[in-house]
Automatic annotation (TrEMBL), chains A, B:
Residues 3-201 form the NAD-dependent epimerase/dehydratase domain. It comes from the Bacteria. It comes from Pseudoduganella dura. This is NAD-dependent epimerase/dehydratase family protein. Keywords: Carbohydrate metabolism, NADP.
Length: 312, 312
């Protein structure tokens, strides 16, 4: 089968590509070709089945190349992160809104019915969340990134209803632990605090110890993406959206696990300097009841110690 | 002020254009230019301020012309009707999804903040409606037309949040009484039964007498569109959507009003041959509580006799 990953040079995309090269997809035919699409690749997998497409997934020639040969599974991960899209409206409009719709239309026009796994985001919910989020919680995006992700979900569901594609939208939380400093993600502190403890470095955290966040490791995320590609989609609701199970943990709980893993001295350099905006948007996450997701076999990282182990 | 209407050759657009030429917009500066955009015009208003743009609102050169001079109020009415879009996926995708997003982006890029009045549709709700529809009822579109309208709402709300446009989405019901036979509208029977009674012709109605529909006259619709253009949008919810007040009437009640208006013989030629699909989608409309809409001064036609009088 021919698998395509957009954003395959990114943090999640690169890990997914490595995973597919190593393991294929659970219960699916063997991978004969893996097309990776991105503007740059730092360390692409070295495998004869892998083809690198350097470029923008929204550009006609890149689309032509992506769908030749026809695509069996398309992972659409490419996007401009939320904070960056909020700064640059035109860029976000193009990359997070118009280009995905053109991509989905292209997939819908091929004879073969492509499975599309779309990386949506919990940003669709916005920041005025109810006390508990469940499968009935309506999206109310507060930033363009979330609005555009919601649009992608709606269009993918409609094309799937028509049988033109077989889509599933996974609403991802912030994934840890991204390397370096990621200015584009408002939730960057979640990765930074893990990396700082691992390196035993000083870190000033922009939320309070009591801030409650939704956590998922890169390994857990990749597992869920691969699971989505192999799933019986007839079990999905008409909206074709799945809010993934997460670990809801305070930053304090995560720091305690980091101390267990790396020693008390590793977290001794953590200072707290809460930023009201970041705390409000990312630090007051409510309980999540992932009914559909758990019934369909998606999973969180298990517990805080496993999260830390898998994330680093 | 410069007003633009897309779909200005259509049933609603042409009436809105005539209304604006005659009355301007309530409480707004005088209209200096009215640009009408459509692929054809049957009977455009004869007025020095009116400019006709023959073409497709999604085409670059037409967009260039539309926004020169800068636009103060944009009524975006152009769309492919629901049943037609359901038949022709590519056409619906282009006209109801991609082109409006390009149009909104163009409006957002001009220096002046354009008021955008977007003709959305009750099709966003889908056909599995709750017993009562109110401002909290979430959209669950069942056809592409409704999905694409919902997308337009979301994107318009986001651009409005950013202050790049000042948008409002009106969810319109079927508007009566369209002339002729409109194959593109699943709700065409609502107009056809009115026209048949007016003409004293035979008509076979595809829903039962007990079918309950949401009714609005063309005159009422035009009034609500003009009202939206002049409204204080700071009173709108963040989603910037308004489900307009409607008269919920059974077809039987409408036929009784037609008999009062045109005489019993005018409706003697009506036969009933319910189609289960049409009855299900258009003939089981629940109660509507238009909270936001009524607070903001939108209105339905008053009563069934006024509806019939205004519609014909």
């Amino acid at each position: 089968m021919h698998i395509v990953i957009t954003g395959a040079g990114g943090f999640v995309g690169a890990a997914l590509a490595r995973h597919i090269v190593a393991c294929g997809l659970p219960g699916q035919p063997a991978v004969t070709r893996l097309t990776l699409v991105d503007r740059r690749f730092d360390d692409p997998p070295d495998d004869a089945r892998v083809r690198l497409l350097h470029g923008d997934f929204g550009v006609e020639q890149v689309l032509d190349a992506m769908f030749d040969p026809p695509v069996d599974v398309l992972f659409h991960l490419a996007s401009v992160p939320g904070a960056e899209a909020e700064r640059d409206c035109a860029l976000g409009y193009r990359v997070n809104l118009m280009a995905p719709l053109a991509l989905f239309e292209r997939a819908a026009s091929q004879e073969r019915t492509a499975r599309i796994v779309y990386a949506s985001s919990i940003a669709v919910y916005g920041s005025a969340l109810p006390a508990t989020v469940d499968d009935a919680t309506p999206p109310k995006p507060g930033i363009s990134y979330g609005a555009h992700k919601q649009v992608g979900e709606i269009v993918l569901a409609d094309l799937s209803r028509r049988g033109l594609v077989n889509g599933i939208s996974l609403r991802l939380p912030g994934i840890v632990a991204r390397p370096g400093f990621s200015a584009g993600h408002g939730s960057a502190f979640m990765s930074a605090i893990l990396r700082a403890a691992q390196a035993g470095e000083h870190y000033t955290c922009p939320v309070s110890p009591a801030a409650a966040c939704w956590w998922m490791s890169l390994q857990g995320c990749v597992g869920n993406l691969a699971h989505a590609a192999a799933l019986d989609t007839s079990l999905l609701p008409a909206a074709r959206t799945v809010t993934l199970p997460v670990l809801r943990l305070t930053v304090e709980e995560v720091v305690a696990a980091l101390a267990r893993r790396f020693g008390a001295q590793a977290v001794a350099g953590i200072r707290w300097q809460p930023d009201a905006d970041i705390e409000r948007v990312f630090g007051r996450m409510p309980a999540l009841v992932p009914g559909i997701a758990e019934r369909l076999g998606f999973a969180h990282d298990g517990n805080v110690d496993l999260l830390v182990e898998r994330a680093l």
